[in-house]
Design brief:
mainly alpha; 69% helix; single chain; 2 domains; Serine Threonine Protein Phosphatase 5, Tetratricopeptide repeat
Length: 147
């Protein structure tokens, strides 16, 4: 059930298929129903996006709902197709800050700022970087003009 709730339909399908052989009769129909749900989800066509920005919005929605692994895949997918997408580096920096990956956060945020200096000002007011606030490297990255 956890795999199903996490949207990992391929793994959930395999688990329910394995369970089907030994499930008590009173749970057989429910198990078949979950198998059907998994199969329907797997048969759906993959998501397509009209623009990289639309893809970014989807990645942010994954991030905001706690699907960190999926969000990382989406941000990396954007960067594979658009290596200069500053907003995807910014999204990865957010994700890294939220998941405690300090060094990766600093690297991705630095790249986002390099590609678009306005990201520096956005990061200064972004509450998602709260965990980075006490890191002097983060402060230096956001306020390079301060001696």
């Amino acid at each position: 059930m956890v795999l199903l709730q996490q949207g990992k339909f391929d793994k959930a399908l395999a688990a329910f298929e394995k369970l089907l052989a030994s499930v008590p009769p009173e749970l057989l129909e429910r198990c078949k129903m979950y198998l059907s749900i998994c199969q329907k989800q797997l048969d759906k066509p993959p998501l397509t996006f009209s623009t990289p920005e639309e893809h970014y919005d989807y990645a942010i929605s994954q991030l905001n709902t706690g699907y960190y692994e999926e969000a990382r895949e989406e941000f990396n997918s954007i960067l594979a197709a658009h290596p200069e997408a500053d907003y995807a580096f910014y999204g990865l920096a957010l994700l890294d800050a939220m998941t405690g990956r300090t060094q990766e956060c600093l690297g991705n945020l630095a790249k986002a700022i390099e590609l678009n200096p306005r990201n520096r000002f956005q990061a200064r007011v972004d509450n998602d970087f709260q965990s980075m606030a006490d890191d002097p490297r983060f402060t230096e990255l956001l306020y390079p003009e301060v001696p």
